[in-house]
Amino acid sequence: MTGSNDATPKALAIYAPEPGAPARAYPDLHDHVLALARAGLLHVIEEPVNKDTQMHPLVRWQYRGGIPESGRKAFLFTHPTDGKGRTFGASVLVAGLAATRDVYRVGFGKPLDSIGDIWIKAMAEPITPVVIDKAPCQEVVTIGDALDETGAALDGIPVPISTPGWDNGPYLSAGHFITRDPDTGVQNIGNYRGQIKAPRRLGMNPSVELRAGIYTHWLKYKARGEKMPCAVIIGCPPAVSYTSVQKMPEHLDEMAVAGALVGSPINVVRAKTVDLLVPAEAEIVVEGFIDTQWLEPEAPFGESHGYVNLQEYNAFMDVTAITRRHHPIVPSFISQVTPSESSVIRKVAMEPVFLNHLRQGMGIKGVKRVAMHEPLTSLYAVIAVQFERGLPTTEVWRALQGVATLHRFAGKWVIAVDEDIDPENADALFWAMSYRCQPQHDMKVIDGKDPGHGPRGPKDNGESASVLINALLKGPFAPVALPKKEFMEDARRLWEKLGLPTLKPESPWHGYDLGVWPANLERQASLATASEYFSFADELVKQRRDDVEMNEPVAQFDGRNSK
Hints:
- By secondary structure, the chain is of the alpha+beta class.
- The chain folds into 3 domains: about 10-330, no CATH class; about 360-470, UbiD C-terminal domain-like, CATH 3.40.1670; about 475-563, no CATH class.
- It has 14 helices and 26 strands.
- The protein has helices at about 30-40, 55-65, 100-110, 115-125, 215-225, 240-245, 255-260, 340-360, 395-405, 425-435, 440, 485-495, 520-530, 535-540; strands at about 40-45, 50, 75, 80, 90-95, 130, 140-145, 170, 175-180, 185-190, 195-200, 200-205, 230-235, 265-270, 275-280, 285-290, 295-300, 300, 310, 310-325, 330, 365-370, 380-385, 415, 445-450, 465-470.
- Strands 7, 8, 9, 10, 11, 12, 13, 16, 17 and 20 form a 10-stranded antiparallel β-sheet that branches.
- A hairpin with a 5-residue loop joins β18 and β19 (about 310).
- The longest helix is centred in the middle third of the chain and has 21 residues, at about 340-360.
């Protein structure tokens, strides 16, 4: 297979902006793909690739093949095929929204260190979308009986199989479902899996365990005895995709939040067969009605919690229209076992929300960082909170409880750590839990937690729990047992001079003081590094005692502790 990182690969020429397009102040998905190419963050695969057997496994290797995040990129497949040799009039973008933080940054259009503040401001000050009459997403319109022609409906969209060997067909993994609350009129956009069941029938799993907005709407339409109008967006401006996966209050219209992210109203247009507003710059829009009387089997499907979701009853949508651009791009999130695109796209936005909740919502000033553990655990299960030294214990417990209660489904294990502990590093978390925590004093269990998104297994009355762990230092400790920083830095210069393999320092990579380091021991250690370790031998003789037990500590506290 061939890949290209040219600034503007020839294969991308069809995505150049067309004259006469509606005015906008934000990138659409075509712009985003071009930006990724210019940034060297896109593999363009121009030879045929089987979407049902090869596509996702190929991209999966960059997450399970030992490639560091800095080496991961988005993949654009310009000639997708299937097991029957069919070709499609669309490209497929995998890991194109959040293969890495850098890919997310390109789509978001802002520096990574400002993303958290922008999210908070956008949810507080949404910008209402603007309705236009003529939109790129309706350049090609197929309605009614025309959908029954071969390749005219869902069978003409190159949706990949995400987990070949387990999934029972192609599923939309980046399908943004738009519905409207029949009581308030507020639209909701959420990202849910959608099984391609037939050319005119699309499955819908509403993530009931997460209490998604679409499920609330579905219950209201069911109570009315009506089918639920729905539009499924396949590809759209990145800002809309990022809001579709964010967790936010149900009264917010995600399209308005997306506008606030880019500082401008998002263009929307009325769908052709349902009373909904859809992004004008969408790639493909699938319109239809979700049945509220009947449910039918759906799945198996490899889920983001890392296990296959076995078959269950879920909703389905009857398709009434499909509209699209002339040269559409079909995005597909790579999810399942984390890290993955779906975990990156959630992590970058959700961590700042937790941090803001603790600092601003609860007024806890000593919180430095919230880190949602990503590899294998998929963010929601293990959450670490990093604190400044000296915060009152009552505030520590309050912060841990705040993390456990912000979302009904997040925070099974919530761990407090000091600033010297890297909360992204599971080994460092275990290190803190092993030596800075006494479980009988420093652990609390909160019952009544919603189990959230996870594999189906034995149930305990449909409830889980949160375990809060205070793994902070409770007082001064002896130094971390690694050479001091200056000696490690000197050794690194020698390492590089000798031409040894490139180093990638892992925290902690040098020793540091944690509060118990008396001046006399500092002096002895300094003499030792000057090879003068025999010079204080007589001092040790003078301290001999016959009234102590083996391993009894020497009284060292001389008022010179560093903290």
